[in-house]
Amino acid sequence: MILIKLLSARNIHGLRTSRSHSMQLGIPCICKFSLFTTSKNDKGSNFLKSQTTKSKEYGKTLLLPKTMFPLRADAVNREHLFRDRCTKDLYSWQLKNNSNRLFILHDGPPYANGNLHIGHALNKILKDIINRYKIIKGHKVVFIPGWDCHGLPIELKALSELNVDKSSLTPMQIRSTARKCALSTIETQKSEFMSWAIMGDWDNPYKTLDKEYEVRQLNLFHEMVKKDKISLFFGLHLQATIRTALAEAELEYRNDHESRSVYVKFPLVKSSLNLPNLTDTDVYIMIWTTTPWTLPANRAVAINSQTEYSIVSPIFDTESLHCKDYYIVANKRIDSLQKIIGSELSIKANVKGHTLIGTSYEHPVTKVPYKIVDADHVTTDSGTGLVHIAPGHGIEDYETCKKSNISTFCPVDDLGRFTTEVGDPSFEGKDVLKEGTDVIINYLKENQLLVKEHKIVHKYPYDWRTKKPIILRATPQWFINVEAFKQKAFSSLADIRILPDSARNRLEIYTLSRSEWCISRQRSWGVPIPVLYDVETNLPLLTESSIVHIIEIVKQFGPDAWWEIDEKELVAPEYRDNGAKYRRGMDTMDVWFDSGVSWNSNAIADLYLEGTDQHRGWFTSSLLTSIAVNDTAPFSTVITHGFVLDEQGRKMSKSLGNVVDPKTITNGGKNREKEPAYGVDILRLWAASSDYTKDVSIGKTVMSQVGENLRKYRNTARFMLGNLNGFNHEQLVVYDDLKSIDKYMLHETYQFGKVIESNYDDFLFNKVVQTLNNFTNVSLSAFYFDIVKDRLYADHAISISRRSVQTVLYHVLNVYTRSLAPMIPHLAEEIYENYKSIGREQFDSIFKLGWYNMNKSWDNQAIQEEWSILKSLRNEVNQLLELARKDKVIKSSLEANVELYVTSDLYELLLNHELELKSIFITSEATLTPNVPPFPNELLQATNSIYIRNNTTTNDISYIKNIDSIDNIKGTCRIVIRQARMHKCPRCWNYSANEGESLCQRCEEILSANSIG
Q1: Which CATH architecture describes the domain 257-467?
Q2: Cβ-based burial of 928 (10 A; exposed 0-12, middle 13-18, buried ≥19)
Q3: Beta partners for 360?
Q4: Where are the domains of the chain?
Q5: Residue 623, SS3 per DSSP
Q6: What does the alpha-carbon distance between residue 387 and residue 397 come to, in Å, rounded to a whole number?
Q7: Are strands 238-239 and 947-951 parallel, antiparallel or unpaired?
Q8: Mind giving me the DSSP string for 871-893?
Q9: Domain 2-21+31-62+866-1008 fold
């Protein structure tokens, strides 16, 4: 039987020869019986039985893979055996023994509140991959885990455990409970982090509640005071239910907030405006606000002096408008207002904005006259073109009044309720976001000041932790004057490597968007702001000697001393007899200031790596505090990662039931059949496989693919380990004595290693995984392993051909294992445990070996070019063999012989590899002829331009295809595939034996030499 095909060089990526999966595990992948055996021997089934017996007998003489490395990972029971040596032991070892430059990855502290989630896993594993790569490259790595321990969530959690009213507790009771809560959580989280093989100085983490840390923090505060970076003035962020100021970084803006917006008319004081022909009528200015509860705090109405305004009157009366009334509004807003109020508006006169400045109007509640002022931020995009100004409840309002020397007024208390200063007793004590809004709107209706009310959905600030809307309220707060140095902070980012590129813009925006940073919080659980206040004047005592005195007390007795010690002892000696009495301040520092100054315990960090939410959080607070004190950024590289979503791209939520618990992945769930324990390496490989520069997905489908990749890595290593049985470094074959394909495999390994190294250097771990997968599946399993199995199993044990393969496997295994190690250290350590006896140097951890030093001679471009052509040819042969299998002409490629008919330069190239061709194609024979004969007769065209010839006399089938070149080598090429004419060797299963039950010549020579038992 003959199969003939003329090859096309254009399809260079052909099909892999079909092989049994068991062969990857060390079992020879060759068919037991030839499809055509019975047609060649009239003994029939008796012959098959005898051949089976022979095969089993000779199979014992094959050098099949042998290793103690298990097929199955059994991760839950085996990973812990390798954990200490690649985590705790390794961390201390590398600091003493590695000699390359110090590498500092500064850990952004997770919050000590609750169990870890999948986002924590992504973050810490990415950091650990980087640290491990740096260690295996010979760097000394400093990684000190940290925890952010203060703040409201911990305080609230502690109070919920006490189950008592907070108002009945002293600050020390709250602090004591919160401290216990934080420390307990830290121990839980620490254990979970360590279970993920996160390497670091776990015995000496930094905690923002430690006395030493707080003393350093207070010293930095002191430095900022000395540099005039700290100021006391009105802050405007408050979340009423938690009674504390919030920084801008603690806000999130929702677009679905619903408000009761109102159009309100304020009567003008008639004598203050000279309007022709309107002296005997009522004139009003009309404002619009989405926060009616701020109207009692009104102290001005702002207009834009460059805008044209009109005096209008309704055409007909409505519920709140009368034809005899006149209203001042922006001319450009008239059309919109007519639709809103339900009446046409007749223009009586037009006035320039600047002529209205200084005009007085009557306050809607107190009836006190206030004035119209100019403000650039007033536009005609919405509302009426006149803006109600309440300096105690708005940033722009505050700035506008500050320019006009208008005092701030805030009739709202710490609980978000109207105070006695509100101007009407019926308003007092009302929650401004609830019934307070109701009473204000009812008041406007009763006093005929309400023009129109309607609900709107708009953007509004929320507390990002409690997810509740905030109110803006002016209270005395301590601020960092960011305006003074934010440009320097922005400029410093030009010298910082920021990944991904899109993150640079975000970090720059958040840096420039701040002018002030409110760092005081009205909480008991935190680092105290070291300020005393004069009891009579309420003026702060914030001098260098006072701060130094307080810091010395904290250094000696701890931060609790601020609440425990007698106030007299807190006063520095030079102020004790000056006639004033002082009280301690009760504010604590913003938690972003706590964590933001964590850089103070390190040199400049090589890397900060956190989630995208930290652009406005920890990244910015770290940058600003470092610039404020040291005039330099605290990091040289910043990397941000996205959030973890489910496979449908949704945020994880208990209500959706899509939360993925990392502990369930590693240890299994309650139902082990549905939620088996996969171990830690699969979690780590998931993190490495993800394109973390974007939001990443996790779920059963994703983890199934990750698990499949992990199994392939294991099986690939197992194949190499099994075939290195009995081998050691003294048996390595020198490069010049290697076969051509072995040299080519070293070239591929060299290129693979360099790409892996480059991707690790660039923090592109998903590309590391992609490169690994391609090398594993294509270069090794589908190509090199397939070709060299026959040499490994059937050649003489000490033959140069077998040693040549083992030499390559040894080098590949070294590069391969080190490539895996930073991502999946347990598997890498287990692999190394099974081959470390082969090497010249033996350590107890793969990481102590260092990165593998690949010989530059492996980078052989000439070999690469040759094998590019040979692989293209092999792909074409495989495609034809696959077609023969599909047609049931053969079962195994070993049942075929290949005849190559070629012309031109291709012949010269193939002639150099003539003896290797049958191994390359995995056929029993391959011959080379330097010409191409004519087409045979009786051709039938089939698919893909393949011609079929069926010779009924000889029962031969031919497949033929014409091409002009292979891989740009000109010349015609034809492949002829014939069914092997010789007999199957019962030992190597090649069809190369002269008789049906006899060995082939190679196997006879090997056995006769008594080299294999």
Answers
A1: Alpha-Beta Complex (3.90)
A2: middle
A3: 371
A4: 2-21+31-62+866-1008, 80-212+609-648, 219-244+476-594, 257-467, 695-859
A5: helix
A6: 9
A7: unpaired
A8: HHHHHHHHHHHHHHHHTTS-SSG
A9: hypothetical protein PF0899 fold (3.30.2320)
pLDDT of res. 776: 98
**Predicted pLDDT at 241:** 59
Domain 695-859, CATH: 1.10.730.20
Below-50 pLDDT ranges, the chain = 1-50, 1012-1013
pLDDT of residue 320: 74
Among 739, 652, 738, which Cα is nearest to 698's?
652
How far is residue 94's CA from residue 110's CA, in Å, rounded to a whole number? 25
Predicted pLDDT at 271? 55
Pairing of strands 532-534, 540-541: antiparallel
CB 72 within 8 A of CB 676: no
How is residue 786 written in tokens? 């397939």
Tallying the residues shown for the chain, one arrives at 1013
- pLDDT at residue 467, rounded to an integer: 83
Pick the CATH number of 219-244+476-594 from 3.40.630.10, 3.40.50.620, 3.40.1440.10, 3.30.540.10: 3.40.50.620
The answer to whether 80-212+609-648 and 219-244+476-594 have equal CATH topology is yes
pLDDT score, position 978: 84
Distances (CA, A) of 702 to 118, 686, 696, 699: 14, 8, 10, 5
Q: CA–CA separation, 90 vs 901, rounded Å?
A: 59
Taking the CA atoms of residue 287, residue 291, residue 296 and residue 297 in that order, the dihedral angle to the nearest 10 degrees is -90
The class of domain 80-212+609-648 in CATH terms is: alpha beta
The token duo for 646 is 């489910």
Q: Tell me what pLDDT residue 953 has.
A: 67
H/E stretch holding 371: strand 369-374
